[in-house]
Amino acid sequence: MNKPFEKIAVVGAGFLGTQIALLSAYSGYKVSVFDSKASAFDDTYKRLVTDFKNKKINPVIPWDKWDSLKQEISFSTDPAVALKNADLVVEAVFEDLEVKKNVFKLMGANAPAKAIFASNSSSMPISRMEAASGRPEKCINTHFYLPLQGMNMADLAPGTKTLPEVMEKGDAWIRSLGCVPLRVNKEILGFVFNSVWRAIKKQSLYMWGNDFADYRDIDRAWRIFTKTPFGPFSLMDSVGLDVVYDIEMVYYNHSKDPKDKPPDALLEKVKKGELGVKTGKGFYTYPNPEIQDPNFLNPNPKK
Ligand SMILES: NC(=O)c1ccc[n+]([C@@H]2O[C@H](COP(=O)([O-])OP(=O)(O)OC[C@H]3O[C@@H](n4cnc5c(N)ncnc54)[C@H](O)[C@@H]3O)[C@@H](O)[C@H]2O)c1
Fold it and tell me: Which of 6, 126, 151, 231 has the fewest CB atoms below 10 angstroms from its CB?
């Protein structure tokens, strides 16, 4: 398999950064991780294991490899240490433009000149962050979905000055992780598939937030329709309702269309700390969410 890089550095050891780090190590790359929070990588690793086991998800990386891969990955709260010798730096911090711009500046100051920079943003085009890096010609979006639970695809988008060979390396990197690159031809918030998923998510939130339907019935319908084990609301719980809220606000701040504003009820949940799987309560309660109850789709459940 074509491996375009030797060493990958991941910035942000949250839900996505940790998955990208593990998958990169599994695919044969040297991996280091930087997060400003010292316990971030350990905490997220434990959360991923618990979440996947609770949901009976069969991960892309076999369970017997997880602990040794984690040992291989180095973690540091010092960006100069974590980004040293990196060929590719993947940013996976909060979905907040100012935070991301600061991180791109920090990446520019700490990574070697050869390094390519990729953002895992779910919605923001790289053109919004590229200038802060000091090397816009080496910046791309590589937006992974939930790679360890089998969503093996990633959006790939250039910025305003990205060199063609940087796009080709991004393409080869995504493929080397066993993921399918989805090429964005023209800049769009949400890229290829998140903009499609967003239409479903937005309508689901609208229906629930305005009391048109119970969120469980929307998930039931989705499960029956798609034959998947999750629905829009349980998926939002996995993503994190704070992350979902931030993403929806990116769309709203872009369009200023009141129809794009996420429902107040979502903000209420975030304020109460009901963030989904990571806090034990979101739409469902964890570790045993109702959506996994064998009776969830039963038209005549036993009382
Ligand atoms: N959650 C998902 O399902 C999902 C899916 C695809 C893409 N994404 C995108 O991936 C990115 C990360 O999302 P997440 O869900 O992993 O977030 P998260 O909240 O789980 O983790 C973010 C991490 O970034 C760290 N961080 C924040 N600011 C930092 C800084 N200045 N320097 C270093 N570390 C910093 C935090 O300590 C935290 O560990 C976002 O852009 C999000 O939109 C998320």
Answer: 6
In a domain? residue 102: yes
- pLDDT-derived band at 13, boundaries 50, 70, 90: very high
- Please identify, among 151, 183, 215, the residue that sits at the C-terminal boundary of a domain: 183
Contact 271, 265 (CB under 8 A): no
Q: Which amino acid is at 74?
A: S
pTM of the model: 0.88
| CB neighbours of residue 244 within 10 Å | 24
Residues 171 and 240 both lie in one domain: no
Nearest CA to ligand 1 atom 38: 14
Ligand 1 atom nearest to 238, measured from its CA: 3
> What range defines the domain where residue 239 resides?
195-292
Q: What is the pLDDT of residues 211-238, one digit of tens each?
A: 999 999 999 999 999 998 899 999 999 9
Torsions phi, psi of 252, nearest 5? -65, -45
For the stretch 74-109, pLDDT in tens is 999 999 999 999 999 999 999 899 999 999 999 999
179 shares a domain with 204? no
CB atoms within 10 A of CB 162: 21
Pocket of ligand 1 (CB under 6 A): 11-17, 35-37, 40, 92-95, 99, 102-103, 120-122, 143, 145-146, 239-240, 243, 247
